[in-house]
TrEMBL record:
<comment type="pathway">
    <text>Cofactor biosynthesis; adenosylcobalamin biosynthesis.</text>
</comment>
<feature type="domain" description="CobQ/CobB/MinD/ParA nucleotide binding">
    <location>
        <begin position="11"/>
        <end position="243"/>
    </location>
</feature>
<feature type="active site" description="Nucleophile">
    <location>
        <position position="346"/>
    </location>
</feature>
<dbReference type="GO" id="GO:0009236">
    <property type="term" value="P:cobalamin biosynthetic process"/>
</dbReference>
<comment type="similarity">
    <text>Belongs to the CobB/CobQ family. CobQ subfamily.</text>
</comment>
<dbReference type="InterPro" id="IPR033949">
    <property type="entry name" value="CobQ_GATase1"/>
</dbReference>
<feature type="domain" description="CobB/CobQ-like glutamine amidotransferase">
    <location>
        <begin position="267"/>
        <end position="436"/>
    </location>
</feature>
<dbReference type="GO" id="GO:0015420">
    <property type="term" value="F:ABC-type vitamin B12 transporter activity"/>
</dbReference>
<keyword id="KW-0315">Glutamine amidotransferase</keyword>
<dbReference type="GO" id="GO:0003824">
    <property type="term" value="F:catalytic activity"/>
</dbReference>
<dbReference type="Pfam" id="PF01656">
    <property type="entry name" value="CbiA"/>
</dbReference>
<dbReference type="InterPro" id="IPR029062">
    <property type="entry name" value="Class_I_gatase-like"/>
</dbReference>
<dbReference type="InterPro" id="IPR027417">
    <property type="entry name" value="P-loop_NTPase"/>
</dbReference>
<dbReference type="InterPro" id="IPR011698">
    <property type="entry name" value="GATase_3"/>
</dbReference>
<protein>
    <recommendedName>
        <fullName>Cobyric acid synthase</fullName>
    </recommendedName>
</protein>
<feature type="active site">
    <location>
        <position position="430"/>
    </location>
</feature>
<keyword id="KW-0169">Cobalamin biosynthesis</keyword>
Amino acid sequence: MTGARKGGGLLVAGTTSDAGKSVVTAGICRWLVRQGVKVAPFKGQNMSLNSFVTREGAEIGRAQAMQAQAAKAEPSALMNPVLLKPGSDRSSQVVLMGKPVGELSARGYHGGRQAALLDTVVGCLEELRGSHDAVICEGAGSPAEINLRRTDIVNMGIARAARLPVLVVGDIDRGGVFASFFGTTALLAPEDQELLAGYLVNKFRGDVTLLEPGLDMLESLTGRPTYGVLPYQHGLGIDEEDGLRVSLRGTVRESVVAPPVGEDVLRVAVCAVPLMSNFTDVDALAAEPGVVVRFVDRAEELVDADLVVVPGTRGTVKALEWLRERGLADALARRVAEGRPVLGICGGFQVLGERIEDEVESRAGVVDGLGLLPVRVRFAREKTLARPVGRALGEPVEGYEIHHGVADVLGGEAFLDGCRVGAVWGTHWHGSLESDGFRRAFLREVAAASGRRFVPAPDTSFAALREEQLDRLGDLIERHADTDALWRLIEGGAPAGLPFVPPGAP
């Protein structure tokens, strides 16, 4: 593979959302880069509240930033030219080439704007293909969303425009994977079916020999092979596009804890605010031995927490209302009065302040904050996108900023361009807890304020854990997929003469 020609490509589609497209794309990228292939990830259009800032100051989906790390490539706006950040059930902020260009309803986007973006998406893909041996593209949702096919720029639309072979991933753990594979194929137009090369089964439990007769029958029905069966493995969560998950060592509700170094564990409660964004900030806490991270939505769940995190949100005023309605605002105020630790990040930092003036995001005007930090926030139309570097608690810290709110800090102790008052910290910096020395120093402060005999592990490296995780994804592909056949797809495209599968057959 080291002599690969430039411009190979593959689109990883899925029978459903959360079928495993992001994981498979990352795994293929890691497998390829191990073989000496210069590879890049790509997703033409992403909908996610978890985003990242590249070195050139562009905002892209965190999943694509993680896939770039899997490929050992520098994240770029070219890898995710269109990012949609939901602000409600019906509208999203449109981020084009890393910069916000406005808010659009779903009807307005799919009614015309989306199709106009196809040239931009294709241009970015071709630029990446011109500088890399291979580009592994991730689709979105299902390629068989027939109501949206006319304006599609992320599944079969980009596949047909760029002549990409398509591999469809199915989550067998959900059940119905054979029907999903067949139905997805049969719903596609003949021109799209020409590019659908085959299937990949994900999250299989049990004896694969029991599955093989079904795979043979599927191939006889569709004329398309299965390129691998990936086993179900725990702890493979990566930076999520959606959902509620602690990625490195966690499940939906509560992280899995390695034994503590000291005598006590440390319990972290994360307020699951509406439109929560970049909840991956707490992954680094969940990676620490002896730290339990759980997402909560009731006031009583804060009682035994040693640290409460109010995370980022795309709806700061809505999150503020939600905290008050659920009694969490009063519970936070009681914690602060007792000197118990609270950390607000980005939107969570903003709600802890005295006042919010918002004519941009919610257009609610002036709203009282929780008054737990001496901060006043004004929402600016221009979004701050930055990669700050600094020091806190005597340790170097790196992070990234994604926010419209401009904070006027009126007092307290300086803390990562935010402030600290007693055991309450607030900052706009996402990702700061990934800085190992700072994270350990912060947890020592939390333990002291909580009266816990907790000792941070001296050798936990978040970056090393992430690399181990990405290597595990590469191992999955290398050990359980037909990598020779995958490479032929990437380099040569979909095989000629793939049969058309009509709806309803057999």
